[in-house]
Write a structure and sequence with these properties.
The complex is a heterodimer. Chain A is 35% helix and 17% strand. Chain A is of the alpha/beta class. Chain A has a single domain (20-272), classed as Rossmann fold (3-Layer(aba) Sandwich), CATH 3.40.50. Chain B has a single domain (2-78), classed as Translation Initiation Factor IF3 (2-Layer Sandwich), CATH 3.30.110.40. In chain B, 27% of the residues lie in helices and 27% in strands. Chain B has 2 helices and 4 strands. Chain B has helices at 20-30, 46-57, and strands at residues 9-12, 37-42, 61-67, 73-78. In chain B, a hairpin with a 5-residue loop joins strand 3 (61-67) and strand 4. Chain B is globular. Classes of the chains: A alpha/beta, B alpha+beta. At the A-B interface, helix 2 and helix 3 of A face helix 1 of B. Chain B: Keywords: Transferase. Chain B: Residues 10-79 form the UPF0033 domain. Chain B: Pfam families: TusA.
Chain lengths: 273, 84
């Protein structure tokens, strides 16, 4: 057989290969796939773990933080023994134990305007997952992905709520089409201040991983042009259509944002970890 | 009977169990072009009950099924030979 999966891989990924939309060739695409996960917290932890289990061959992990005891309620890639360890190291170790087919690239950095494009280019990632917990990073990731022409999944979680959308280059809309500018400082609390039900990252983060897998496989309909919101208390999903804004400052017809911007992080965030 | 067909490739799945049986046949078919023909050697019991059915579900055409003296079976399958 010309398909180069080993017998062990055929067994490991058999439930993928059986799927008509995946097959052996689809699994090979996943093994050749490259996904960058920015933030290995509530969203990034489950996303990275499912991508690793699925056999996405190269996974980049970006995080500047160390594992804190208060992370373990939701950031399931990290274990109790990992408290105090850099999150990227802990994440890399977990993935290595899960699936030897996966190569993990680590970036022990806080993404900013100076490094994010280089990180994306480092392995020419196919898809980027925004698993960050603050607005400066979310706008930065959006703008960088638009400029680098990379598909990515935006998501956010807080309390019992979550949302996500997928950006596909050239097709829009991007995050800025929906949210043109940063919210006023402290107008919106982060989950550090407001709390979050642990499972929210699992639900929304695995939806992000689903989008990454579909994008690599080239199957199904992406959450491109829609914002999906989830309310755990009322158990309600809403899929809201969002238009591409042709006047968008970054992805519109005449972009005015052509350089990345480092927005200021609200002071309370910096104090709290 | 299989002699009637020009077999493009063959696969033996008597050494594996469900679901790897079907997985291996499916992967062998992926390497063929539509209309090409695969011979499959498989065990009686669960494999012969399930593999042909799964192949039909995915749009392939089972051209013939024959049982050997040792109880194993030989399938002849045409890739994409069946309208879904």
């Amino acid at each position: 057989m010309s398909v180069s999966l080993t017998n062990e891989q055929i067994e490991r990924y058999s439930r993928h290969i059986i799927l008509q939309q995946v097959g052996g060739k689809g699994q090979e695409k996943l093994l050749g796939g490259k996904v960058l996960v920015i933030g290995t917290g509530g969203l990034g932890a489950p996303a990275a773990m499912y991508l690793a289990a699925a056999g996405v061959g190269q996974i980049g992990l970006v995080d500047f933080d160390v594992v804190d005891l208060s992370n373990l309620q939701r950031q399931i890639i990290h274990q109790t023994k990992d408290v105090g360890k850099p999150k990227i190291q802990s994440g890399k170790e977990t993935i290595a134990e899960m699936n030897p087919d996966v190569t993990v690239h680590t970036y022990n950095e806080l993404v900013n305007s100076a490094n994010i494009r280089d990180i994306i280019r480092d392995q020419d990632y196919d898809f980027i997952i925004d698993g960050t917990d603050n607005f400066p990073a979310k706008f930065l990731i959006n703008d960088a992905c638009v400029m680098e022409k990379k598909a990515y999944s935006h998501a956010g979680i807080i309390r019992f709520q979550g949302q996500l959308m997928t950006y596909v280059p050239g097709q829009g809309p991007c995050y800025r089409c929906v949210f043109p500018t940063m919210p006023p400082k402290d107008a919106v609390p982060t989950c550090r201040q407001a709390g979050v039900l642990g499972v929210m990252g699992g639900i929304i983060g695995t939806l992000q991983a689903t989008e990454a897998l579909k994008y690599i496989l080239g199957i199904g309909d992406l959450l491109n042009g829609y914002l999906l919101t989830y309310d755990a208390l009322t158990m309600t999903f809403r899929k809201v259509k969002i238009p591409h804004n042709h006047d968008c400052a970054v992805c519109g017809d005449h972009p005015t944002i052509t350089e990345l911007v480092d927005y200021e992080q609200p002071a309370c965030d910096l104090r709290n970890h | 009977m299989s002699e009637a067909w020009k077999i493009d490739d063959t696969i033996d799945i008597t050494d594996v169990v469900c679901p790897i049986t079907f997985v291996k046949v499916k992967m062998a078919l992926e390497d063929l072009d539509d209309g090409q023909i695969l011979g499959v050697h498989l065990n009686e019991g669960e494999p012969i009950q399930n593999v042909p059915r799964s192949l039909k579900d995915e749009g392939h055409k089972v051209l013939s099924v024959s049982q050997a003296a040792d109880g194993t079976y030989d399938l002849v399958v045409q890739k994409g030979g069946r309208e879904l």
